[in-house]
Design goal:
The structure holds two protein chains of two kinds. By secondary structure, chain A is an all-alpha fold. Chain A has a single domain, classed as Orthogonal Bundle (Arp2/3 complex 21 kDa subunit ARPC3), CATH 1.10.1760. Chain A is built from seven helices and no strands. By secondary structure, chain B is α+β, with helices and mostly antiparallel strands. Chain B has two domains: 59 residues, no CATH class; 167 residues, Beta Barrel (Thrombin, subunit H), CATH 2.40.10. Chain B contains four helices and twelve strands; from the N terminus they run H-H-H-E-E-E-E-E-E-E-E-E-E-E-E-H. The radius of gyration of chain B is 24 Å and the shape is globular. Classes of the chains: A mainly alpha, B alpha+beta. At the A-B interface, helix 3, helix 4 and helix 6 of A face helix 2 and helix 3 of B.
Chain lengths: 172, 280
């Protein structure tokens, strides 16, 4: 429990830096912008207070925003994701419910559960983000294409980083 | 009353969500009008400091391309120098020229942050107020137009890139002098669209588009783009023209900021003109 207070701030800084300095410069085409930093919201503990979840997510979004001159854009998408996350978690909950203080991940819940969870979250976030970015529905399908392409890219990165994550070998 | 409180408590989560989203969108709209709070943009010392350190690191990777661009520019400037002209007749003589007066000054700045993959792209450059940079100045690269300065701090400035949905450059066709406005369509960082060129003008692929010089931001006749495709739309009076930007926004390293020395005078006249329009 206490390690979370050290681990999460470090992850926060790491993913913001990774996003603004490296991933924002990946420009494979105009359609592909991975936003890996959302993984921080995915990794927050399951039983976290909903208000705190939204506040932390907003802070995360704002940090990315300040670096990319789009104040409010990422923040609004992150708050939206944080709002939806409890509903996604409860709709995906395993038969005997969640244990307290669990962290969503492949180790705890298996690959298919994590894929479903991560893809719903990433697609929701990217949808919100890209439509707020263009702020009109006139080029609806063009934007949808960007949402799908970028979501796939982000999802691949999310799964890869999941494999890198150090986690203490199982709770007793 | 008790019911109201119970209602509020029950949906407090949802109200918090609405409140946070309201704050976000408030920030977003303020930002859209370029009136963002002074510390919430990438020209502030903390974020710009990180960017400039990072760019110090990555600059080495681009040295080859930068050298090439600078060498090309040197060559162009050298061609304009006096020593590359041949004297055709007569002895040396000095002309004290009062016909020409300096109109534009240029300041050199390094790009410390740049993006091309958003719908609204900005650059951050490593010169600011201390170097005489002000809002509304034009920014150029060796190959052409880059954007307009929007925010200035002591040592840094943010530049609204041409790759921004609200950016427009008053431009004209180099050959026929017909003017229109050049915009980005938000798709690819090398391509934009040229609007308001009437159907009867003869244009062809490869024609150069230059700045019109109608505003106090850019000098006239700077290259902006070349026409890559065009077609006539049935029932419309204007062409649908696609252009390739001359500037490569992906490898910008050094840019020039243009200062128009008669800007105040020019803008005053333009404003007076706006006033007149209302009167008559």
């Amino acid at each position: 429990m206490i390690t979370n207070f050290i681990r999460y701030p470090l992850w926060f800084i790491f993913f913001v830096i990774l996003q603004v300095l490296i991933l924002n410069n990946i420009q494979l085409s105009a359609y592909l912008n991975p936003y890996l930093y959302v993984i921080f919201i995915l990794w927050l503990p399951i039983d976290m207070n909903r208000g705190a979840l939204m506040a932390v997510s907003m802070l995360l979004g704002l940090s990315v925003d300040i670096f990319s001159n789009s104040v409010g854009m990422h923040a609004s998408a992150c708050v939206f994701l944080a709002f939806c996350r409890p509903f996604i978690l409860s709709s995906l909950s395993p038969r005997d419910g969640y244990e307290a203080d669990q962290i969503p991940g492949i180790k705890n819940f298996g690959i298919s559960w994590f894929l479903a969870y991560a893809s719903i979250c990433v697609v929701l976030h990217h949808c919100f983000l890209f439509y707020v970015e263009v702020f009109r529905f006139s080029d609806f399908f063009g934007t949808l294409g960007r949402v799908i392409a970028s979501s796939l890219f982000t999802l691949v990165l999310v799964v890869i980083s999941q494999l890198f994550r150090y986690s203490p070998s199982r709770k007793v | 009353m008790r019911n109201l409180i119970r209602f509020l408590r029950r949906f407090s989560f949802f109200f918090l969500f609405l409140l946070l989203e309201l704050i976000c969108f408030y920030l977003l709209f303020r930002n859209n009008h370029f009136q963002q709070a002074a510390f919430l943009h990438s020209a502030n010392s903390f974020t710009a400091g990180i960017y400039s350190r990072y760019s110090n690191l990555t600059d080495y990777l681009d040295l080859k391309k930068v050298n090439q661009a600078l060498a090309e520019e040197n060559q162009r400037l050298r061609e304009r120098q006096l020593m590359s002209y041949q004297k055709v007749f007569g002895p040396n003589f000095l002309i004290r020229d009062t016909l020409y007066q300096k109109k534009y000054l240029y300041a050199k700045g390094k790009v410390v942050n740049n993006s091309i993959n958003q719908q609204n792209n900005f650059l951050t450059i490593g010169i600011g107020k201390r170097n005489g940079i002000e809002r509304g100045m034009g920014v150029l690269a060796p190959q052409g137009v880059v954007g307009v300065v929007t925010q200035v701090s002591d040592h840094y400035a943010t530049v609204l890139s041409l790759l921004h949905r609200q950016a427009k450059v008053g431009s004209k066709l180099k050959d026929s002098e017909y003017f229109g406005s050049l915009q980005w369509d938000g798709e690819h960082y090398t391509q934009g669209v040229l609007k308001d060129i009437p159907n009867h003008v003869v244009i062809s692929i490869g024609d150069t588009v230059v700045t019109s010089g109608f505003s106090s931001i850019f000098p006239a006749e700077l290259p902006v783009a070349t026409i890559s495709a065009f077609n006539e739309v049935a029932g419309e009076n204007f062409y649908d023209i696609k252009v390739d930007f001359t500037t490569n926004f992906k490898n910008l390293t050094y840019v020039y900021v243009v200062k128009h020395l008669h800007k105040a005078e020019f803008d005053e006249l333009e404003e007076a003109k706006e006033g007149l329009k209302d009167d008559y």
